[in-house]
Every structure is written in structure tokens, then in C-alpha cells.
Amino acid sequence: MRVLTYYVATTLDGFIADPVGGFDFFPLGGEGMEALIDEYPETIPTHLRTQLGIESPNKNFDAVVMGRRTWEPSLDAGITSAYQHLQQYVFSRTMTEAPDETVTVVGSDPLEYVRDLKRQDGMGIWLCGGGSLAGALLPEIDELLLKVHPIVIGNGTPLFRAGFEPHYFTRAESRPFDNGVTLLRLTARR
Fold it and tell me: In angstroms, rounded to a whole number, what is the distance separating the alpha carbons of residues 62 and 23?
């Protein structure tokens, strides 16, 4: 069975984006970024891979799932298929088709759809955002990879938007970087 990993940057107070969906307040670069690019090269958008000299094959994931609002910034920049090196699934209740044939728009129940994806052959599945989709998929998330930034923003898109239902995780790794970011890897307790 494939593994669903929620790999995302977060603030200390648990936000993955500002109140309007922006994430440019997260600093880029530094020792941590280089290590994470080396370990998770497939999480770098296709158009940036060449610029950064990334030629390595996918190491962890061959599919990415995201909510419509997570996908929209690339669309706004004129990029209709940000992760051409991955199978791309965008969950939306309002869109019916994608402007790019390499992206699958899914209007059905995310939980059932991802359960089916996990039963198919392949590498891991990367959940890259957003908070509402992560909340819907929480019962199927096998691993959290959180890039915890030493920032508090007070309001924004939460890491998970869901009703109260505790889900427990076990810390598997905690790796601090010189730029203040800590990579926290947790696995679901089942």
C-alpha cells in the first residue's frame, strides 16, 4: 500500500499560509533548503528543477494531491502544470476540468479517492496542501513532514481545518537546521 505524506511548511502557531493564501513570508534558502531539495527533489516544481540543476529522479513520491487554492498561485503565474514529473490531482468542488491535460481535477469525496490511490501500485503520495484537504484526508495520512519555521503569524490557513477528532502521531525524527527551521517527521499511530 502506498504512503500518504503531508509535507508542508508551517509556522509555530500552525499556519501554512497567510489569511489570503500567501506563503511568501516563509524564508527560502539556507542549509535546510539544500538538504530538503536533495532528499525530496520531486517537491520542487518542474519549471524550477532545471534552474536549480535538479536532474535526479523522484525519490519518494510519484503523485501529488492538493486543494484548488493550493494550485491557484501557479495558475495565476501562468503555470498550468507545476509538477509535470508527478501525477497531479487537484480537489475542487467548483472546477470541473483543468486547463492542462497532465492535471486531474477531482470533484468526488477526497477521502475515498485517496484511499483508492493508496491501493494502486506506485511510490508515495505527497499531500502538499491545503488545510481543508488535509483535514478531510487526516484519517489516511500516514506521515507528517513539517518544516516548522520559527515564525508566529497569528492568523491564516491552518495546518488542518477539521472538526474535533484527535489523531495521534509518533515523532520519528526532529532535525534542526542553521536557518532556524526544524524538520519534524511524525508517523500516524494506527
Answer: 24
